[in-house]
Amino acid sequence: MLKITELSAHYGSVQALRGVSLSVKTGEIVTLIGANGAGKSTLMNTIFGYPRASGGKVEFDGQNISNLPSHAIGRLDIAVVPEGRRIFQRMTVLENLLMGDTSGNRRTADDLERMYEMFPILRSRASQRAGTLSGGEQQMLAIGRALMSKPRLLLLDEPSLGLAPIFIKKIFSVIKELNEQLGMTILLVEQNAHHALRVAHRGYVLQHGQIALEGSGAELLANPAVRAAYLEGDTAQLDAA
Q1: Can you supply a Gene Ontology BP term from the record (predicted)?
Q2: Which of 32, 46, 78, 162 is exposed most, by the fewest CB atoms within 10 A?
Q3: How many domains does one find in the chain?
Q4: What's the pLDDT tens digit per position in 33-49?
């Protein structure tokens, strides 16, 4: 469904991605792990054209979308939950959810009901300003807003960042549910390697803007270099592997 080939990206004169290649097949959860500054969020942003790829290409369903403007990419069956959530804080929970419905269909009530069933707290907070929600509740809202467009591919950028353990558990439970029950294809960017690799079919390790390792989620969880670098906090170990 998503194929990235030799992708490079720059911020001015600084090269953030260096020939990154990865793929996400229909029905998979693929996770991308790495330390701060490795280029994870840059990769996610480059898929949507900001920054624009300076080399390589991004394909969605066989179509090269590397040179499409961001608004055109946004009309494809792709939804993103950005790092930091970026909800509309002065709008209500309900208004935020409705902003996610870009399909123009007439089943909004049914779609809202599905979001409320998945995230019951949002039902009771529907008329509350989104900016007054807790961090975990805001993350649920951001995911719900993205799902309102009925995407075939969901991009999640650091969904557990800054959340309490109870909300982290809930978020990863939802990710697994979306994939297993709805067959949703997911690209997950995460620093929480343990949780991410446990739910992923396959994973990639990004380091210094390049893919350092790849394998199944189970293989990467068992890899001594990955365990030392991302499960025990010693990033120097991966360089030596």
Answers
A1: L-amino acid transport
A2: 162
A3: 2
A4: 988 888 998 999 999 88
Other beta carbons within 10 Å of 224 = 11
Q: Which residues contact 80 (CB under 8 A, 6 or more apart)?
A: 44, 48, 146, 154, 155, 156, 157
Range of the domain at 68: 2-77+152-240
Q: What is the pLDDT of residue 235?
A: 45
For residue 106, the 8-state DSSP code is S
Q: Are residues 38 and 138 in the same domain?
A: no
- pLDDT score recorded for residue 111: 84
Asked if residue 209 and residue 168 are part of one domain, the reply reads: yes
Residue 84 has pLDDT above 80, yes or no: no
Strands (E), the chain: 2-11, 14-24, 29-33, 53-60, 63-64, 78-81, 153-157, 185-190, 202-207, 210-216
Select from 124, 150, 176 the last residue of a domain. 150
Place of tokens 């950005």: 82
